[in-house]
Structure formats: C-alpha cells, structure tokens
Amino acid sequence: MKLFRKSILFIIVLLITNLSYSQDNLDSIQNASNGIKLLQERFLDLNKETNKLKKTNDSILNIIKTQTNQSLSIQKKLSENNYKLIESELNEIIKFEEQIKNYEDIIKVAYSGALINKLNSPTSTELGISFSEIIKNNCESILTKDLGRNKKNRLLETINRVINIPIVNSLVVSNPISSMVSGIFNQVVGFNNNSIDTKTIKEFMSSLEPYIKFHTSIDKANLNFENQLISFQYDLSKLKTEFSKYKNNFYLILNPQTMDIDVIFRKNSSNLNFSDYKGINENPTVTKIIELVDSSPNFSIDRSVFVNSYSKFIEKIIQTLKLAESDQKVKYDKGKIRENILKLETVKLK
C-alpha cells in the first residue's frame, strides 16, 4: 500500500456550537493526537520497508525477463520477497486501521464537549460572573434608576423572563448572547408606554457592547472552526471508503481466515526446487495480491493541516480572552480569564 500522493485531510468533528469541553477532554485530545503521531511514524517506517521490497521485486522480475535459463536462486529470492511484501502489506493495513481508530477516538472526545462553548454561554460562571448576571446588574443600575418601585419590579421580571429563554434555544441559536441582548432590547423599547427614555436605553446598550464584542468574536471563531471540521469529516469519509474497498479486495484475494501465507509460500517445507519456487511465484493468489498492491492508491492521514487549523482556533480564543482581560469595561473576573488563558495554552497541538 503506497502513501497517498495527494495528501488527504482528516480530523475531529467538534460540534463547538452545541457542546462544552472540560480540561479532561482537552487533555484527552492532546494525548490521542500524540499517540496518532507515534503511529504515523511507525506506519511510515513500515511503508518505506514495503517500497524497498517492491523495488527488489521489480529488479528480480526484470532479471527473469532477460534470462532464458532461470536459476533456482532467482526464483527463491522472488518467492522470499513476495512473502515479505504480502506480510508487510498485512501489517500496514492493521497499522492504518489503528490510525483511523485513534482519529475516531478523538471525535468521541470532541463530541463530549468544549470549554470554549462554556465561555459563550450566557449562564456560565466560567469567567467569575455570568453574562446573565451582568445584564441584570446593568439593567437595575441603569434602566430602573428613574422608575418607580412597581415599574422597576415589572421591568426586572420581564428581563428575567427574557434571560431564561435563550437557555432553551441555545442548541439552535449559534450565539445565545446575541439572542438574549436582542430579546431584552425589544422588551425595553416601548416598555410601559416608553417609560424609559432613549438616552437611558443607549447607555444600557453601550454598557453591554464590550461583552457583545467578546462573545461575538468567540462565536465567529467557533463557526469558522466548525466549518473546517465539517470539511475534514467529509475527507475522512472519502478516505475510509477508498481504504475499505482496498482492504476488502486484499482480504478477498488472500482470505486470511482460511488461507495462511506461510502455507502458500510453503514456509515449513525444506529443499524446495526450481519448480516449487516457480509454482509459488506464479500462484494466482500471489500474483493477484502483488498486482493489487502495485496498483493501490497511496493512503495517508495528514494531521498537520488539522493541527494548524486547531491551533489557530485556540490562539484566536486566547487573543479574545486577553483583550477582555485588559478591557476595564469588561467586568468578568480577571483571575478567571487568566486561568482560562493558561488552560488553553496547554491544549495547543504540536
């Protein structure tokens, strides 16, 4: 099995907009990625050995074509090389399946959730205080300052009702923060026959702008990365289909459950003669497998593209957190922001 000359991309499908990472999830992704890297190195070593065997095979076959009297040693050498080539190919199939399984393990980890989406939840206290609480506080300190007690209580009840709505809709709304702000604005404008003047509403909305900017930036990064992951998933699906077809054809010819390559190549026999080796080399099973191996596509999984995409995504979130950390208008806990920055720094893939 040759390495795919057009490198096919694959990586985890991470449903960022709907789920939440924990630190354990992020650690698992990094550990799984490191394991894949090691598997790829072993796979490449095995592939180099297979390519050497192919070249040796070609050389021997060229010699056979040019010689009228084929010697026992040449047939023996070809038989030994064919055996090693088929054995190596069986090992490659197993190793490549391990790579695919490890990537699929990352998908399972990714589906269990994301810390980054927690940051974008209006009810999360990951940054010390939830966006919902900030809205309540700003509403009480700005919007209700000129209202009587009854109107104040009615407005706060309305705000609380709107705040609770996005929790239900968060699975279908890409950015529940925007949904919440929009809902509150619609309720405030015209409240109790325009009891709240335009200037006060503008002041309230301005107090939310730094938070809207922060969460919109995270949401855009999420959506961009999710779109890339959908593309990676599509590429994996195509790769798995091609690889399964090749593997099935290989096993269909060899049928490892009933046909032992040691039996085909008569490994337990001694003193094989010229005719014996020639018979092995011209065995239909051997010739069909060698032909299949020679014509097979190059299968490979290129993790570098995902690593680059994932690291850029993490870096974008980190930069957004750093901007919030330095913005005095953002009242999220600076210590919590720093804590999340440090967490994300540790999960960049290498």
Task: Provide an overview of this structure.
- The protein has 350 residues and is an all-alpha fold.
- It has a domain at 131-209.
- Helices cover 72% and strands 0% of the residues.
- It contains twelve helices and no strands.
- It has helices at residues 23-66, 72-111, 115-119, 131-143, 149-169, 176-188, 198-254, 261-264, 274-281, 284-295, 303-326, 334-345.
- Helix 2 packs parallel to helix 9 (274-281), helix 6 runs antiparallel to helix 7 and helix 7 (198-254) packs antiparallel against helix 10 (284-295).
- The longest helix has 57 residues, at 198-254.
- It is rod-shaped, with a radius of gyration of 31 Å.
- The chain starts with 22 loop residues before the first helix and ends in a 5-residue tail after the last helix.
- The relative contact order is 0.16.
Helix content: over 70%
Residues in β-strands, percent: under 5%
**Radius of gyration over C-alpha positions, nearest whole angstrom:** 31 Å
The largest pleated sheet is described as: none
Distance between the termini: 27 Å
Query: What pattern of helices and strands is seen along the backbone?
Result: HHHHHHHHHHHH
What structural class is derived from the secondary structure elements?
Answer: mainly alpha
Task: Give the overall shape.
Answer: rod-shaped
Question: Could you tell me the number of beta strands?
Answer: 0
Sequence stretches where pLDDT stays below 50 over 5 or more residues:
2-22, 166-173
> What is the overall number of helices?
12
Mean pLDDT: 76
